[in-house]
Amino acid sequence: MHGLWLYLHFPKLQMDTLYHQQDLQRPVVIVDAAVNAVVQYNTQAYQAGIRKGMGLGHASALCQSLQVIPYSPDITHKTLLDVAQWLYLVTGDICPFQPDGLLLRIHTMLSLYGGLEGYWHALNSHLQSLRLHYHYATGPTPQAARLLARYGWDQRHQDADVHQRALATVPLSNTDLERKTIHSLARVGVKRLGDLMALPLNELAQRYDHTLVTYLGRIKGSFQQPVSFYQPSERFERYLELLYDIEDINALLVPVAQLLGQLSHFLKLRDQLSEEITLVLHHRDAEPQTVIVRSAVGEYRLTAWQTLCRLKLETLTLEAPVYGLTLKGGHAYIRQPDKQDLFSGQQGALSCLQLVSQLQARLGEDAVFQILPGDDPRPEYATVQHAPLRPMQLKAPVSDHMALLRPSLLLTPPKPLTHKVTLLHGPERIATGWWDNQAVIRDYFVGCNGRGEWLWLFRTPQQQWFIHGLFS
Amino acid sequence: MNMTLEEMKQKQLVWQARQQATVRPAKGSGFSGLDRLLDGGLPERGMIDLHTPLGIGELRLLLPTLQLRHHDERLLIFIAPPHALCATFWQSADIALDRVLIIQPNSTAERLWAAEQCLRSGCCHSVLCWYQGVTVAQSKRLQLAAEQGDALYIQLQSPNARTHSLPVPLALSLSPDEQGLAITLRKQRGGVANRHIRVNMASRWPDLMRIRKNTNNVIAFPQSRTG
Questions:
Q1: What is the ipTM of this complex?
Q2: Do B84 and A408 count as a contact with CB atoms less than 8 A apart?
Q3: Locate the UmuC domain: which residues (chain A) (predicted)?
Q4: Interval A215-249: pLDDT, tens
Q5: Closest chain B residue to A447 measured between Cα atoms?
Q6: Which residues of B touch A349 (CB under 8 A)?
Q7: Exposed (0-12), middle (13-18) or buried (19+): which is B207, by Cβ within 10 Å?
């Protein structure tokens, strides 16, 4: 089966992600300061006569109430990845093309959605909820799909001939070729891609440079286009740029709710709960303010987080106007079903292994362990630590082993005895360990001190006394 | 109408059938003195606030209860014990070590988190945690978690810890005594507080007695002794 690719081109990515208010009637443009040109604009700006590529002076002359926002590659980059993460819910292979496009490998997805129409319906309705402007096109190769989408073809087909005909009509000025090459091609009468593709490749290679041949080869599919597919991150993190600086907490709750809705969706799809979220308020003239909202039980629902956020934010004083928000999800874990018992009420229903993995995830691998008796007769080696809940070989206790009086707690290392004790038992001589240079020769006693503590003591051949355990 | 019913519930004037589970009869603690003091033994679930110096026999007092509880196929958990546990002792006390878990968090704050997770999970029968200075809010959470997970939570603190009265079903203070332990019942839900009792441990721990009844200076050979 030949490949089929879909390219989504987002011409107004930064404009679309600005936080919209319903009654927004002012023309807004985004200007790339590096080239002094309008790169994105809203409907009102378009009606005022502003077009792409105009200088700032020209644009502001056309419209006096124009609001100008600088173009930010960072926001565009972040937004593109957010869109990729959102689309990942319906489609598998996504390759972000910086700065404003997403390439989807769709021939692997068609059987899941029952054909191209079903797939497109699912993808489109999913994409609609982001309220972005986009152009799209299918293509037999990544480069062909990209070219058609950027040209604004807005069609989907599985038929290779349709694609060939559509590609043939694309003017060369819409391609990624260098301006010099386009110009020299135009002078020999090659104005559309169809004209160029009709020429034999090896002839072109002799007359033009290598990039043209590579580009054409990638459109036709004779050369491979390297693509690296997107991997979603495990943590939730979104940034929202506000159109106006907000100084009032209550006004801030609306955009916060928008982010929380996305968080809630993120967690719900993964069947996860989060106990903590971090909200970063980016201030215009001050350091960003970080607000950590915690929930006593893991939570994913929007309403619950909204209530908690409102409570937290109401106690907060804003140091400066806020122009942007970042929401980060804290540690998330899989939701556990609760067991409801008629007589004993609601009960937890974690398996032991789930509990251990939860504990280890937070406390570290080594913080959770088990003990089992070892073979060594030396008391400090007689207890062996063991990884939790792995099968362990528990020997049946030897009967004379049973009779040994051992303390419940062992001091590691033994502590020198510094106070007076009354000895009540002993001695029990342990002289062993000759095989590994850690030989011990000790006489063990049971004693009790003035504070009523029951101690396990030993005496070395040098008549030094140590406390080794507590009969707790 | 509903408001008044809510108020009555808050004042605990209304008994509801689902509260029944919290007052299940307790099993014996293995020490007759303690059973008399507590009207039957340690509670089946919930939190016990135990003020005790280290090493006077506090774990030996709890041992019969833990042994009994360890018969159901759930875990026994020790959180942040002050010293290493000796496997020989627990094995000879018939505690199956494959269901004993020891948790040693790096920070003290994580001890209570771990305790709550264990209690809530429902796969532990008892959790013993060494922690100083638990607050009222924390103890309420732990009590709830213990009830939810049908577990017994025993919190061991040293007696000089200055804590106010906690809303726990049972609070005990232990101190050493010639016969074993002296126990003060500081608080019991539905019981009379500030009662004292001495628990004789001679029958279970004859070797760890300061005064022995038959004083003889011949020490029995360890292998031949039983018990």
A1: 0.81
A2: no
A3: 25-149
A4: 888 888 888 878 888 887 778 888 888 877 888 88
A5: B208
A6: 122
A7: middle
